[in-house]
Design goal:
237 residues, alpha/beta, 6 strands, globular, disordered N terminus
Length: 237
């Protein structure tokens, strides 16, 4: 592995990282980049919660900024879970908010922009704040996985994110949904109660998030009826 002053080189180190366990990936990335490491956690899916637990079990949470995007449209259950996990692990999540409030957005672009132009809404409420969260960071840890959607099937454990100019890390990308929930169950990790109400993937509490159904992909309930499957944080929308 190449642990240079500049950090990891995906072109050289990616094959090794594909063979490492998730805890090993986290340890090596934090060792290489702390304190300029961030974990994005939506508190709307179990993957980020597993990563939180893995970091805590290795005493790495103090070396990582855990952040979420407070869009102003999150479910109450999402905020409740975040507060519960902060108490459990003894940390405080950094909140990044859009430049304009939901009310200002409606005044400027019309009511319910997410219904008429969801890409524009995501750009304002998620993509912009995410870029702000990652300013000055050298590594970005995410909970995305290959089994979540066809667009995510080619996700690598480590890869260079050119738009943001940092290393993007997906320690769980090779895990399945069953793997994640097995870990949550075995470790007793708290999770968003809306999963038990039929929501496999949670975002904003608008038409952008609906219940899923059996035999659907894990993100089929997001932007239902549209070709859109991503908010823009992890590739094209």
């Amino acid at each position: 592995m190449t642990l240079q002053l500049a950090g990891l080189d995906p072109a050289v180190d990616a094959p090794l990282f594909e063979r490492l366990s998730a805890p090993e990936v986290l340890r090596r990335v934090v060792d290489a980049y702390a304190p300029d490491v961030a974990l994005s956690c939506s508190f709307g899916g179990p993957g980020g919660l597993v990563l939180l637990d893995l970091l805590a079990r290795q005493d790495l949470l103090d070396d990582v900024e855990v952040y979420f995007l407070d869009t102003g449209l999150l479910f109450d259950a999402t905020h409740e879970l975040r507060e519960r996990l902060e108490r459990r692990y003894g940390f405080e999540t950094a909140a990044y908010v859009p430049e304009i409030t939901v009310a200002d957005q409606a005044a400027r672009f019309g009511a319910n922009l997410w219904e008429r132009d969801p890409d524009a809404c995501c750009a304002l409420r998620k993509v912009g704040p995410n870029a702000l969260a990652l300013e000055g960071k050298r590594a970005w840890i995410t909970g995305i996985r290959r089994d979540q959607s066809p667009r995510r099937a080619a996700t690598s454990v480590i890869e260079w994110n050119q738009p943001l100019g940092l290393l993007k890390v997906a320690p769980l990308c090779g895990w399945t949904d069953a793997d994640v929930w097995d870990y949550v169950d075995r470790r007793g990790v708290p999770y968003n109660r809306l999963h038990d109400a039929g929501y496999p993937s949670l975002g904003c509490n608008t038409v952008c998030t609906t219940r899923g159904a059996s035999m659907e992909t894990l993100r089929a309930g997001r932007w239902r009826g549209l070709a859109k499957t991503e908010c823009g944080l992890h590739g094209s929308v």
